[in-house]
């Protein structure tokens, strides 16, 4: 059987999604928990891998197994063996052709930034932080230049293994909610560190270090060394995945940038 899962997690204590020999990853914890329910080894694939310290509001994954269990067993049983910072929200059988990654039409990320003179304490590890005032209007103007099919080499990590730097960005929004700035991005796929690098560039523009047009210059340059430093992972959330309706996944599997959780 092939089972699809909806997952949320606080990634602060984990070294990203992908399994590592030390075992301190989301994938390792999830596979261990599901194996306890299935009574056999389980290997999980997700819609979008997240880096160290990055969170997920609506990650989607799938796995194959021989065990037959009620859908509720994968949720309740899985959660009983997971740390408190990871939760399976739903589970359901899917066709063998479904793949959490390759069947996805788009992915969404949200970055939450605390824009205040004093660093956050209660939200430490859950939001990014920038201490100087930011011009949201300039950031919104710059964000529009990111839209469309473009070569995002200037926002790509050196170790990125994607076959092509060309991606299509469908959404790039910046909004202020009191002291919080919320960045929403949706694309067919993302490069490694792409969102954090775009946020870093937009913050440089919002702080007055660069004009909005600088984004176009960076894209044209295809040069990562000319862009802003990679921003902190603390405020980054994998926010949702879009699939075709015929897969009949729960509504939470198609959430695109859900409302701010604060």
Describe the secondary structure blueprint for this structure.
Elements (H helix, E strand, L loop, with lengths): L1 E8 L16 H13 L5 E3 L8 E10 L6 H10 L5 E9 L11 E10 L12 E3 L5 H9 L3 E4 L14 E12 L2 E8 L6 H13 L7 H8 L14 E7 L20
Helix pairs in contact: 1-2, 3-4
Summarize the structure.
This protein is an alpha+beta fold and 262 residues long. The protein is 20% helix and 28% strand.
Overview of the structural elements:
The chain is of the alpha+beta class. It folds into 2 domains: 2-103, Pseudouridine synthase I, catalytic domain, N-terminal subdomain (Alpha-Beta Plaits); 106-238, Alpha-Beta Plaits. It contains 5 helices and 10 strands. Strands 1, 2, 3, 4, 5, 6, 7, 8, 9 and 10 form a 10-stranded mixed beta sheet that branches. Strand 8 and strand 9 form a beta hairpin. The longest helix is centred in the N-terminal third of the chain and has 13 residues, at 26-38. Residues 256-262 have low confidence and may be disordered.
- Sheet bearing the most strands, described? 10 strands, mixed
CATH topology of the largest domain: Alpha-Beta Plaits
CATH superfamily of the largest domain: Pseudouridine synthase I, catalytic domain, C-terminal subdomain
Number of strands: 10
Distance between the termini: 38 Å
Domain count, please report it. 2
Give the proportion of residues in helices. 10-25%
The Rg value, from CA coordinates, equals 19 Å
Structural class: alpha+beta
Portion of residues in beta strands equals 25-35%
Poorly predicted parts: 256-262
Basic shape: globular
SSE pattern = EHEEHEEEHEEEHHE
Count helical runs: 5
User: Which CATH architecture of the largest domain is right?
Assistant: 2-Layer Sandwich
- Main CATH class of the largest domain: Alpha Beta
């Amino acid at each position: 059987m092939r089972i699809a899962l909806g997952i949320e997690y606080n990634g602060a204590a984990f070294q990203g999604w992908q399994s590592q020999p030390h075992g301190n990853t989301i994938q390792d914890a999830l596979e261990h928990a599901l194996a306890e329910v299935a009574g056999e080894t389980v290997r999980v694939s997700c819609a979008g891998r997240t880096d160290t310290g990055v969170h997920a509001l609506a990650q989607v994954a799938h796995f194959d197994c021989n065990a037959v269990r009620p859908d509720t067993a994968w949720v309740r049983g899985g959660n009983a063996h997971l740390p408190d910072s990871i939760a399976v929200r739903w589970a359901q059988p899917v066709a063998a052709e479904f793949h959490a990654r390759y069947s996805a039409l788009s992915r969404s990320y949200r970055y939450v930034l605390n824009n205040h003179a004093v660093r956050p304490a209660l939200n430490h590890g859950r939001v990014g932080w920038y201490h100087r005032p930011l011009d949201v209007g300039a950031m919104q103007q710059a964000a529009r230049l990111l839209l469309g099919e473009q070569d995002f080499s200037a926002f790509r990590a050196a170790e990125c293994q994607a076959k092509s730097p060309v991606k299509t960005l469908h959404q790039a929004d910046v909004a202020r909610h009191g002291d919080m700035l919320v960045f929403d991005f949706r694309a067919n796929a993302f490069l490694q560190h792409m969102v954090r690098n775009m946020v870093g560039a937009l913050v440089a523009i919002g702080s007055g270090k660069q004009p909005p047009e600088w984004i176009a210059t960076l894209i044209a340059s295809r040069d990562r060394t000319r862009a802003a430093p990679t921003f902190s992972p603390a405020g980054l959330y994998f926010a949702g995945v879009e699939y075709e309706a015929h897969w009949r996944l729960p509504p939470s599997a198609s959430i695109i940038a859900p409302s701010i959780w604060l």
